Fold these 2 entries.
Entry 1:
Amino acid sequence: MKKSVLREYAKLIVRCGANVQKGQEVMIYADLDQPEFVQMVVEEAYKAKASKVIVEWDYQPLGKIHVRHQSVKTLGTVSEWQKARRQHMVDTVPARIHLISEDPDGLKGMNMKKVAAASKLRYPILKPYADQLEGKQQWTIAAVPGKAWAKKVFPGLRTSVAVEKLWEAILFTSRVTDDPLKAWEEHNANIKARCDYLNSLGIESLHYTADNGTDLTVGMIPEAIFCGGGETSRMGIFFNPNIPTEECFISPMKGKAEGIVYSTKPLSYQGQLIENFSIRFEKGKAVEARAEKGEELLNTMISMDEGAAYLGECALVPEASPIAESGILFYNTLFDENASCHLALGMGYADTIRDHHSKSIEECRQLGINDSMIHEDFMIGCATMKIDAICRDGSTVTIFENGNWAF
C-alpha cells in the first residue's frame, strides 16, 4: 500500500478519530503487526501538538502464556503502579487510539473460565477509574491488517496478497478518499440527520422481526436519544469513536426486552469465534443462549456479571452500507457490526441520555442505562429484517424494511 495513502489514514485517525488537542497526552494501543503504520500515527499525533505519545504493544501468544501459567489470583491482581497509572489518566485525560489487527482465532484454546474469574477480580478495582473518565476522553478504534487476520478473511490468497487486499478493504470502508476529512464531515452530517428523524418519533419500543425466527421487542428509555458518527466529550471536543462507522445507536431500558433473536454473523469474543447462535430474553434478561459453535463461551460471556445478561445497545445499520456491499466477512466486530443491525450485551452508553453532560454516570444508570464489565456487539441484521418503532403517541412507524432504512 502506498505510504502517501497510509499517511492520509493516519492523519484521519488522529485528527478526525481521536481529534488530538494541543498539549494533550496520547495513548496508542496496538498489536505487533504494523509497526511502520503505528509510527505514522505517532508522528501525526505530534504534528497535532500532542505533548507526549505512549505506545502500548500487545501480542496474543503472550496473553495465552500468561493465562496458562499464572494463577487466577495473580491474573486478577491490580498492582499499585497500575492503579497509579489509571489515576494519572483520570488526572490528565489523554486521548486514546486503539489500532486493532488481532487474529480472530488467536486465543483459541485459552482457558476462558480462568480469564473470566480474573476479570471479575480486577473489575471492581478498575471501575472507579473508568467511571471518573466516563464521557471525558476522546477515543477512537481503527484497524490495520495482521497476517493471520488477512488469511482468515482471504484464505485462498498468498499472505502478502491477502494483507494488501485487507488494507484496500479497510481504507475503502473507512472512507480514505482524496479528502478523507471532508468525506467524514459529510458522513457525520448524514448520520446526524437520520438520528434527528428517529429522535423526532418519540419511540417507546422497537420490534424486530426476520424470516430466520427473530421476534424481539426492546423497550426504550424516555430520556434516551439515537446517536451516531461523531460525538462531543464532556470537555467539549468532537471526535469519532469508530473508524469506520455506519450505525445509529441507542441504549435501551434495562429490563425491557422480550422474545428471541438470531445472530447473522459470527461473534469474535476474546480471540475466539461464536457462530450461529440465538438468545432468548425475558424481562430484559438473556435466559437462554444456544450456539452451533462456542456455546460454552457464549454462556460464560453472558454470566460475567449481573449486567452482562442485559442489553446495552440497539444499533441500526442498513444492508446498503459500504461494508455490507463489499461482501466481505471481516471476522472483526468493528467492521461486521457496521455491516448489519446489531445489539450489544452489557454496558450501555451514558452519552445516549439527552443532556448527559449535566448528569452523573449514576444518574444515567438510574434512568435505565445498563452497567456491566462487558460490552459485546453481536450482529442480527439480514435482508428480511423489519423494525417497527412503537411510539409514545400510539402510532407505529416502520423504520427498517427488508434490511434497509424505510425512510
Note: The first strand starts at residue 25 and ends at 31.
Entry 2:
Amino acid sequence: MLVNDVFSFLDELAPFSYAMDFDNSGLLVGDPAQPVKKILVALDCTASVVHLAKESGAQLIVTHHPVIFSPIHSVTAESIVHQLVSSGISVICAHTNLDLAQGGVNDQLAQRLGLKCVEGLTPIPCTGRDKNTVTEYLGRVSFLPEPMEPKDFACFVKDRLGANVRFTVGNRPVHRVAVCGGAGADCLDDAIRIGADALVTSEVKHHIFLFAARQGITLVDAGHFHTEDVIVEPLAERLRVRFPEAEVLTCHLEEICVL
C-alpha cells in the first residue's frame, strides 16, 4: 500500500474538506506514492514520536494535531520537519475534520464517558467531498445512565480519562452531558442553550469558569491531551482493519508534565 491509500481511507472517515478555515490538515510531509508497511498513530508529531517512528521503522505517522500549523520560516537540521524528510517518514494529520466527523474525536470522548445515543452540539457548515455544503457538529451531547452530583461527575471524568481536572460545581445533578475534545470552551453557550448539566472540554480560561458558575452548569476541564487522545486507539484499529497487511503502532506520550 501507499501513503495515498491511507490518505484516501482517512478522507472517507473524516473528509479533509471538513477542516475549518484556520486549520492545516492533510498530507503535510512526504510523498503520496511512498510505500508503507508500518504506521504510527499519535495525537502529536513531536520529536519523541519521530524518534519512535525511526526506531520502529514506520514509514508513516498519522496524527490528530498538525505537524505544520503556523508558517515555517526555516527548516534546519534540528527541526521536526527536517528530521521527517531526511528519514523518509511521511505525516498525515487529521485535525478539525476528525473533530467534526462521525466516529471522530468527540464521539470517542462521549463513548469513553459512557454516553450513548449522542447528538451533535454546535452546528458547523462544512464542504463535502462533492463540494456541497453539509452540516456537521462540533461536540456531542447525551445522557449519563444515572445522574451524578457535580463533584462525583468530575471524579468520574478524571478516572475515565486518566486526567487531572478543574471544574465548577453546578447547581444541579449532572445527567445531560455535553463534550468537546480539545479547546472547546466556545461550545459552552450551546451547552447552556440545550440544557446540558455539564460540559467536558479543556483549556478553559478563568473568566469562563466564573461565567459557568453563574449559569449553574458544571464545567469540567480535563486537559487538551486527555480529551483528544481517546481517538488514537480507535483510529489505529480502523487502520488495522482496512490495511491488514500493515503493522499499526500507537503512542500515548504526553509531553506536558504536571506536578
Note: The first strand starts at residue 26 and ends at 29.
